[in-house]
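FW: tagging you since you asked about this chain on Friday. Here's the raw sequence from the shared folder, copied in full. Didn't touch anything.
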Amino acid sequence: MAVVDDVLSLPGMPAHPVVAGTEQLALLGQPQPIRIPERLWRSWLDDPSVVARFVAKCYRREANRCTAWLGSVSSTGHGSFRAASLPGASRRGTVPAHLFAYQLEYGVIPRLGWSGTDDAVLCHQCDFAGCVNPRHMRLGTNAVNRSEYHLRRRNLASPLADVRGQAGRTRAIATAIRNGLASGDNADSIEQRIRSAEAAGLPLTLW
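HL: got it, structure written out here
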C-alpha cells in the first residue's frame, strides 16, 4: 500500500491529501449524523487501550472468514463500538465497529459518509453486516453500495436474505459464539455453532 506525504492510499479509492479539519459523518447516535473530526478518529485508533477494548469484542476465525462482532449491535446489524464517552450529543463517541476495524487496518478515510456522489462509503463484500474483517470491505459510493445490495439480496443463500434481518443475524451468530466460548468449545465446534446460526435464518430452511 502506497504512502504519500504520510497519507495511506486506501484500497478501492484514489489517494486523498489530509485536509485540516477533515471530518466524517458517524451513522450512529442522533437522527442527524454527527461529524467526527479526523484528529479524534486518530486519537482513538492510536490509543492502545481503546484498540484493546475493540479487539476483545471481535471473534477472529481461520481462513480469512468473517470476523464476528460480539458487542452491541445497531438496528442495521452493524456492530456498535463506544470508542469514548464524550459530552454533548447522545452516543457521540460511539462508532460503527466495521468502520473502526477498517480504519485501524488502513487509516482514516477522508470525507466518509458525506452526501456527494463521489464521497466514500464502506461496503461489505461478504454481505454480513456483523463482520469486522477489514479484508471483507472496500470503499465505494452510495450509488454502488445500493445497487449491489438490491442485486445480491435476491440470492436466497446470501446473508442479506436472512429472515431475521441483519440485526437478528448478527445477534444470533454472536450468541452462538459466546455460548461456545462459555462452554469451552474448540474452534471447530464453534464453527459448527456459527454455521447452524447462519442456516437458521435462510429462507429455504423455513420450507
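FW: Confidence is low (pLDDT under 50) at residues 1-22, 27-31.
HL: agreed, and The longest strand covers residues 23-26.
FW: great, closing this out.
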